[in-house]
Amino acid sequence: MKQAAKPRRTGRSDVAPDVLLGMYRSMLRLRKFEEAIAERLKTPSEIVCPVHLYTGEEAVAVGVCANLRKEDFVFSTHRSHGHYLAKGGDMKSLAAELYGKTTGCSHGRGGSMHLAAPEYGLPGSSAIVAGTIPLAVGAALAFSVRKEDNVAVAFFGDGAANEGVFYESLNLAALRKLPVIFICENNLYSTHMPVASCLASTEIYRKAESFCMPGVRIDGNNVLKVFREAGRAIAAARLGEGPALIECLTYRWRGHVGPNYDLDKGLRSKEELDSWMTRCPIKNFEEFLAAQGLISTAEKEAVSREVDVEVAEAIAFARASPYPDSAEITRGVFR
Amino acid sequence: MTRKITYVRAINEALHQILESDPKALLIGQGVTSPWYVGASTLGLIQKFGPERVIDTPVSENCTMGAAVGAALAGMHPIFVFPRMDFMYYALDQLANHAANWHYMFGRQLGVPLVVWTIINRGGEQAAQHSQALQALFAHIPGLKVVMPGTAYDAKGLLHASHQDGNPVIYIDERWLYQNEDDVPEEPYTVPIGKGVVREKGSDVTLAANSYMALKAIEAAKALAQDGISVEVIDLRSIKPLDETMLLKSIKKTGRLVIADGGWKSFGVSAELAALAAEEAFNHLKAPVLRIALPDTPAPASRTLEKTYYPDANRIASEIKAWLHKEPK
């Protein structure tokens, strides 16, 4: 594959150009993969399992994971494609899992909501709202007991702030100063319910105050802001300074589940969606990179082409892969 | 060296040996550093292994259970303790949705090496929220193993085996057994998970029981022997996996099955064993199955009600006698 020309290192950002361009490519991979999946979810769908698309929220997963090492753990949710790809998970295995194939990252046992890539620090994603928050606390406990400077990241949505285990987890993490970062992806909707219909106080970041933990709210569509804020929290956690809560304001372009925008359901307005689409994290970052002289039109096109090829190959791989053998049904309940 | 020690000391000894020999082992739970912790079962652990590995937790069962699962996913071997089995309902999501499913749901990539040590602490007028025996509930869930040691020897050996198993194992002990003594080797050893043991040999009736009820079953068998009824007592030790081979061999020999279980009757361990007999040994049965278990009511407080609620050895013996009497000739 033809490599894009080396970017000119003229950017004024304090973040290294390689990191910035890496985040750009990573967001584009998430977007293009999911756009291709959305096409294949339309009737008649090739994919049967419930699929929760991350479109519009890419800056959060990418900005956070760009600070992580392979050994750091990321715990994800039902909306897990972004976290999986941003942490290093293989795109072919992801596509195959959505298709229910034996070559999938969970061998066809999990589907879209249950993705794992343990070799990249992704031990699994859970479809129980807030279910993985205490798991991240536990992984951080393991790192802390072993005196390693790894961190654990819990990604969760605004809906998880309605669950008691979220508060229990903030408390335990703060109490023991554990290296865990709580990343709330506030996309303004808990399935069909606007966040204001769920939470008496919608400032989720302020819950951290009660647990003597730093809490901030940032623009979750600005990948550089997410990168910097998560970077600060992760660095502090590595030094043993304890956990942090970062609320990333973002927006779910498509419906709670499936490929549609669900504007006909009367849950949100077209104006609202349009205004968030103009705040597209990828388009805005692309403009920033261009303004910084970090990417040319030719380079943009090259990245785009490479990602298109990768996505096409992943889907072709998934379609060509075999389904699990039904004789496998009882295998692996126990080790 | 083998010597007589109590059930609770056998648990304490196993915990010391596990934490000593496995640097990945942790003990996590409410009150584990308390000197008066359940029967002094955690005595000396905090002094020897420190607060990094003997972790006393706030009363946040959902989160702390999840933290133990997360630590297991990150390579540790936690032992998580519930001082009362009743408190486990708060933690069901982490056990049933997460720990139990993880290995299967992610295509056998990551196991959850976790012991959930939980204590049945019934009687004493403690009523419905401090007395429950939930072995059937956990045995119902694919991905969880369930063991119930009835002797000091098994308490130690099954704790070691549970720790080495590599899967989530629900290790259920009973406070009413804590002061019972047994011959227990000093060195570490395992009792295999999934293997029952014949406590009394007999030819007329197979009496399958577990934990405290297994002791009562032995007493009942001895009493019945006086009346010329020969009872074979099987202590299940593991609820899941069940030792079906041992059970079926005995049922086929005696042709009669009685189950004594300390949980509720409906949809419980006794129902599962009855189903096993019906499915796998139907043609060998000379009589309908007899189940001795708790009535389908919450545990009452008052001592007179408790006496009716919990079956003892006399009840087991008299029910078996009445049942044999009813048997069609």
Question: What series of H and E elements makes up the topology of chain A?
Answer: HHEHHEHEHEEEHEHEHHH
State the CATH topology of the largest domain in chain B.
Rossmann fold
* Shape, principal axes of CA atoms of chain B: globular
Q: For the terminal residues of chain B, how far apart are their CA atoms?
A: 52 Å
Q: How many β-strands of chain B, per DSSP?
A: 14
Q: Provide the number of structural domains of chain A.
A: 1
- The CATH superfamily of the largest domain in chain B appears as Thiamin diphosphate (ThDP)-binding fold, Pyr/PP domains
Query: Largest interface, and how many residues on either side?
Result: A-B, 44 and 41 residues
Instruction: Report mean pLDDT of chain A, rounded to a whole number.
Output: 94
SS-based structural class of chain B?
A: alpha/beta
**Secondary structure: helix percent of chain B:** 25-40%
Q: Tell me the Rg of chain B in angstroms.
A: 20 Å
Class by alpha and beta content of chain A: alpha/beta
Shape, per Cα inertia axes of chain A? globular
CATH architecture identity of chain A? 3-Layer(aba) Sandwich
Tell me the number of helical segments of chain B per DSSP (H or I, 4 or more residues long).
11
* Uncertain stretches of 5 or more adjacent residues of chain A: 1-11
Task: Specify the biggest β-sheet of chain B.
Answer: 7 strands, mixed
Number of strands of chain A: 8
Write the layout of secondary structure elements.
The complex is a heterodimer of chains A (335) and B (329).
Chain A: H1 17-41, H2 58-65, E1 73-76, H3 81-86, H4 91-98, E2 124-125, H5 133-145, E3 152-157, H6 164-175, E4 180-186, E5 189-190, E6 193-194, H7 195-198, E7 215-219, H8 223-238, E8 244-249, H9 270-278, H10 281-291, H11 297-320
Parallel strand pairs in A: 1-2, 1-3, 3-4, 4-8, 7-8
Antiparallel strand pairs in A: 5-6
Chain B: E1 2-6, H1 7-21, E2 25-29, H2 45-49, E3 54-56, H3 61-73, E4 77-82, H4 92-105, E5 114-120, H5 135-139, E6 145-147, H6 152-165, E7 168-174, E8 181-185, E9 197-200, E10 205-209, H7 211-226, E11 231-235, E12 238-240, H8 244-254, E13 257-264, H9 269-280, E14 290-294, H10 303-309, H11 313-326
Parallel strand pairs in B: 2-3, 2-4, 4-5, 5-7, 6-7, 10-11, 10-13, 13-14
Antiparallel strand pairs in B: 1-8, 6-12, 9-11
